[in-house]
Amino acid sequence: MVSRFEHPAGSYKKIFETCEDLAEALPATVTGRIPPFLKGSLLRLGPGLFEIGDEPFYHLFDGQALMHKFDFKNGQVTYFRKFIRTDAYVRAITEKRVVITEFGTFAYPDPCKNIFSRFFSYFKGVEVTDNCLVNVYPIGEDYYAVTETNYITKVNVETLETLKKVDMCNYVNINGVTAHPHIEKDGTVYNIGNCMGKGASLAYNIVRTPPTQKGPDKSDPIEKSKVVVQFPSAERFKPSYVHSFGMSENYFVFVETPVKINLLKFLSAWSIRGSNYMDCFESNESQGTLFHIAKKDPGEYIDVKFKGAAIGMFHHINTFEDQGFIVFDLCSWKGFEFVYNYLWLANLRANWDEVKKAAMMAPQPEVRRYVIPLDVHKEEQGKNLVSLPYTTATATMHSDGTVWLEPEVLFSGPRQAFEFPQINYQKFSGKNYTYAYGLGLNHFIPDRICKLNVKTKETWVWQEPDSYPSEPLFVQTPEGVDEDDGVLLTIVAAPGSQRPAYLLILNAKDLSEVARAEVECSIPVTFHGMYKH
C-alpha cells in the first residue's frame, strides 16, 4: 500500500488553490460505463477560498467551505459547487478581510473601530467560526454541513443553497461536536463533544439525536437531542482533542489522546494577542493514551482504566463486539505530537523535497487494531486477557488496576498513511467486517486509493502519476452479496491534464477502474462527504 510515485513536479500544490463558485452545473465527459444503480449525488466538502484580498489563510482547515456535488442520471454525470454562505464567508466577502478567526488564522480587530468599541467587543468574547468545511450528513430529513465547533449549517443538497446556522449549544450541554457522527439504519444520530462536567471540570458527552418522528409530530429532531453518557476527562481544564469515536451494537469507544486543548489559554490568550485555535493545543508527554468504553442503551460509563502508548488519532475505522471483547480499528499516528502541526498550507505547498523533509519529523502513521476485554478481573495480573484466536492485540492487567493495551498492526509504511477510512457502513458498521478503504497519503500528499483486508492484511492500490484523489466512498451494488460488492467514488485532481479533475469510479473488489467523469475546471482538496441515494 506504499506509493509508487514521487512528486517532484509539485503539481499537488494546485489542490490548495482558490476556485470560483459555479453558476450552473457542468456536464462531465464520461469514459467507461457509469453503473446504472448510481442515480443519486456524491456530496463533498472542503476549503475553496484560501485568501481574502491580500490576507491569506494559513492552515489546511481555514479555507472557506465549498460544497461539491456530482449528480448521476441515466449514465450521465454533472458537476456543481457552491460556497456555503456561512457568517465567516459572508462577512469576509463583505469586508474584504478575514473577520472570524479560523483554525490557524487570526482575525485582526476591525481597523475601522475606535479603541472604545474594540474594548467592548473584547468583552463580548470570541466569535466562534461556523466555517463548515469538513463533512455533510443527514439529521432527520435535513442535511448539515459541519466542522467541529458548536455551529452546524443546514444546506439544501439539491441546489446547494445555505439555509440556516444552528447552534448546538441551544439544545445540549456541549462545546462543539465532531464532524464524524455515527448514524443508525433508522436515522438516529450519535455524536461526541467536550462539555463542562460536574464540579467545573471538563468531560465529554455523547449526544443522541432521534430520527424524524412518524405521524403529525414533524418537529426538528435536533430539538430532541439528549446526552446519553458522559466520559470523564483525564485533566480537569484540558480536554483531549476528539475527532471521532467508535460505536458497536451495544458500546461506545472513546480514545483520549495526549493532544490537549488548553482551555485557559484558549479563553485568555485569544483576544489579547493574535492567537487562533492551533495555538491552544499542547501535548501531555506523560499521559499516554486512555481508552474508555460505555454502554449505549441505557448509557453507562464503565469505570475501568484502559491505557496504551501515546498515539494521535483522528479516524476510527470500525468497532465490533466478539465473544466478550470489543475490537476497534484506528488510523493512528505514533507518539504524542499533534499531526495538525504539519498541515500548515506553507508546508503542503512546498517543493517535494521540502514536503518530504517535513514529513520525516512528523509522527508515523499506522493502522492498528485494539481489543478491550469486557470482563476484567483484578486478580489476573500480568496475563493477557484477550483470547480471540485471530488477533495478536493484547490487554494486560497491571498491579495498579489499569489494563495495558498493545495493538495488532494492520498496516504500517514509513510516511505512507492509510487515512480517511471508509467501510461498507450500511451493512457492516458496528459488525465484524473484512474490508477497509482509504486515501493513501504520501508524506501527507494524497496520491492513491487503498483497500485493506483487516483479517489477512492483504492490500490493493489504485494510483496514477500526478493524480491526487480524495477520500473514497463505498456504494453497495443493490443486489450485492459480498461485503465488497460495490464501487468506490473519489474525486481526483489531475492538474497537468487537459481536464484538470474527474470523478473516478472503482470496482471495490480489486480497485480496477469502472468509469471516470472528467470536468473542465479544477477541484481543490475535499475532506469528507456522502453518497445520497
From TrEMBL:
Q: Where does Fe cation bind?
A: H180, H243, H315, H528
Q: Which GO terms describe its biological process?
A: retinal metabolic process; visual perception; zeaxanthin biosynthetic process
GO cellular component terms?
Answer: plasma membrane
Q: Which reaction does it catalyse?
A: an all-trans-retinyl ester + H2O = 11-cis-retinol + a fatty acid + H(+); all-trans-retinyl hexadecanoate + H2O = 11-cis-retinol + hexadecanoate + H(+); lutein = (3R,3'S)-zeaxanthin
Residues annotated as coiled-coil are none
The species this protein belongs to is: Takifugu flavidus
Q: How is the cofactor bound?
A: Binds 1 Fe(2+) ion per subunit.
Catalytic activity, EC: 3.1.1.64, 5.3.3.22
Taxonomy, top ranks, is: Eukaryota, Metazoa, Chordata, Craniata, Vertebrata
Q: Does the record's keyword annotation contain NADP?
A: no
Example of a GO MF term: all-trans-retinyl-ester hydrolase, 11-cis retinol forming activity
Q: Which cofactor does it need?
A: Fe(2+)
Membership in a protein family: Belongs to the carotenoid oxygenase family.
Give the principal location in a single coarse category. membrane
Keywords tagged on the record? Cell membrane, Hydrolase, Iron, Isomerase, Lipoprotein, Membrane, Metal-binding, Palmitate, Sensory transduction, Vision
Membrane topology per record: Lipid-anchor
Q: Which Pfam families match?
A: RPE65 (PF03055)
Q: What is this protein called?
A: Retinoid isomerohydrolase
Origin superkingdom: Eukaryota
What subcellular compartments does it reside in?
A: Cell membrane
InterPro entries, from UniProt?
Carotenoid_Oase
